[in-house]
Design brief:
Nucleotidyltransferase, domain 5; five-stranded mixed sheet; 10 strands; globular; binds 5'-O-[(R)-(carboxyoxy)(hydroxy)phosphoryl]adenosine; binds zinc ion
Length: about 350
């Protein structure tokens, strides 16, 4: 059977200018963006549900889906209006189809399918992780592969060798928790609000690195990561004080944890650079907003003659502009055309 909109999709491959409407709803941010030629963000609207989920200490999937549903039509209108683009002028509709929460993803996917069908524009299915990588293309107009990518989000922690826009080789990944997950759990045990990463980042600035929390040594020889051991050490440390009803310095815990985790991320990235011969490391994902990671990685890279790239803050965490950028490079590579029975994928290989 012929693929849905195959001819229209093929025509886009060589079209000079591409204007893409992108939708992201994989977790607790509903986002719509219009991006031109993979680098120029014409509009980027995000409705964050952080305040809604905060009182539950984390994302409640069902509540996330309902809120995506309530927000998405308005965001679509806003994204077109602030881009100054008419729906007929769009070349394609891009949407995150995984990884993420199934119910949340389905809201974005179904809305995108409706648009694709009504506007007769190809539907492009985007891997969320590829979107995070592309957040650097909109942040750094001159950045091009090849480079090494350190992917650090709430769902992933990985090192990838990227030799072209759509050529990814996985060098190492976490064997247990993602680093963002570890930040969020440590924050929770310290009684900090959700999402914990930015809270730890802030609190650590007031603390001392005086508690010995270490990242598991068992993966030392590899480029894989493990963060569940250090997370458990922090939880045990806090519980011991709680049981004795004694006080401890939360800022010192945050600082000591953050130091150990960022050392590990920097050390393995530098090692991966040496092993692959790459000269640039590109950080992607929400934990890329971490100030200690940014300063340590930049300093170490400078010492070694490497370059470190971080996405600008608003593109670190989930947004649709990064999905629109990734979609541009999918189309140029002739990949990503999706059928109208596209469905959500809660997990996808990197
Ligand atoms: O990429 P992202 O928005 O969503 C996923 O695709 O997972 O990442 C969210 C993660 C959360 O775990 C959050 O706590 C973490 O990124 N995060 C941070 C900081 N800002 C966000 N972690 C450490 N320091 C930060 N400043
Ligand atoms: Zn994300």
């Amino acid at each position: 059977m012929k693929k849905y909109m195959l001819n229209e999709f093929n025509e886009l491959k060589n079209k000079e200018n591409l204007t893409i409407l992108a939708i992201e709803s994989s977790c607790d941010e509903t986002a719509v963006s219009v991006v031109r030629n993979g680098r120029e963000v014409l509009s980027n609207v995000v409705a964050s549900q952080i305040e809604i989920h905060r009182r539950f200490g984390g994302v409640v999937p069902e509540i996330a889906s309902r809120n995506h549903l309530m927000a998405i039509s308005n965001l679509y209108e806003q994204a077109l209006k602030s881009a100054g683009v008419k729906a007929e002028e769009l070349d394609a509709i891009a949407v995150t189809y995984g990884a993420g929460l199934v119910g949340a993803l389905l809201v974005g996917i179904n809305f995108a399918k409706g648009l694709s069908y009504a506007l007769k524009k190809p539907l492009i299915a985007i891997n969320h992780v590829h979107g995070h990588i592309a957040s650097n293309y909109i942040s750094h107009p001159d950045l091009k592969p090849p480079f090494l990518c350190l992917m650090v989000s709430g769902g992933h922690t990985a090192l990838l060798k990227i030799t072209d826009y759509n050529k990814f080789k996985l060098l190492g990944t976490t064997v247990d928790d993602a680093v963002g997950e570890a930040f969020d759990k440590v924050a929770r045990v310290l009684g900090l609000p959700y999402p914990g990463g930015p809270e730890i980042d802030k609190l650590a600035k007031e603390g001392k690195n005086n508690i010995k929390f270490t990242v598991s040594n068992s993966l030392h020889a590899t480029l894989n990561f493990s963060f569940s051991g250090i997370k458990t050490s922090v939880i045990n440390y806090v519980h011991k004080f709680d049981q004795k009803k004694e006080d401890f310095c939360k800022a010192d815990v945050a600082r000591s944890f953050e130091e150990a985790v960022t050392d590990e991320l920097v050390e393995k990235s530098i090692r991966a650079m040496r092993l692959t011969g790459m000269k640039k490391v590109v950080i992607a994902g929400g934990v890329g907003a971490n100030s200690m990671l940014k300063s340590k990685m930049s300093k170490k890279c400078k010492e070694k003659g490497f370059e470190a790239y971080f996405p600008v803050l608003k593109y670190c965490t989930d947004n649709a502009a990064m999905i629109g950028s990734a979609a541009y490079y999918y189309i140029r590579s002739g990949i990503g055309l999706a059928p109208l029975d596209l469905t959500a994928r809660p997990s996808i290989d990197l």
